[in-house]
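Our consortium's second objective concerns turning raw sequence data into structural hypotheses that experimental partners can test. To show how far this objective has progressed, the report includes one record in full. It was chosen at random from the queue rather than selected for favorable results. The single chain below, 226 residues long, was entered without modification.
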Amino acid sequence: VVVFSDGKAGHTGQATAVAELLQQAWDQRTAADPRLRGVAEPFMRREPIEIRYRSWWRRGVLMLAAAGGAVAWSSPRQWLRWALTPSSARALEQAWGPYAVSCGAAAGLVNLVWSRSRSAQAIHVMRPPWPLGRSFALCVVPHHDRAAEDARTVVTHGALHTISAALLAEQAARHRPRWPLRRATQMGLLLGGDTRGVRLPAALVAGVVEQALAAAETLDAELLVT
């Protein structure tokens, strides 16, 4: 499984989560069938390939070429070399896999073109880039994107992530010595930033922090804020 990243940590995490689900499915199959053990290891490429375009207009031309069928009638590799930075194009040429996972429109476009050149199954997380949605083998779309579930679209009711009990235990063991945590309970508060259509004014943040402090006092807990 090859993971494509558009440079956004949240998108990379969701694509990696799908890749890990595929890895788990492979592990289950190999456990049930001794003939498959040791085949195609490692199944998942751990380092995502970051997608960087030379310019916004080259990305637009690549989108039109993919939608109009021009990429299918010519060399997808040449199109990727033309549209992407040399480092991104080189990384794509050196990668191979029967499955490719992307999240975000910028990575999804390249996923589709690259998968066609490798006869791979293109899987995309979130709403796929228009008008290429029906070209993906599978789309995993959150419910708030208002996508209709069908044979090639899975609708989720939350964002995918790579957090597990084992990962939490590992991170806790690694970071606990850094902070003088003395109480039995800790609370975590994660504050994001402004984004399209959503703003976090100082008064709102102050109110959230005050309520978190009050809850920590009631629970006799320590509060960790990011």
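The partners drew two points from this record. The CA atoms of residues 73 and 199 lie 45 Å apart. The chain has a mean pLDDT of 88. Both points have been shared with the crystallography group to help prioritize constructs.
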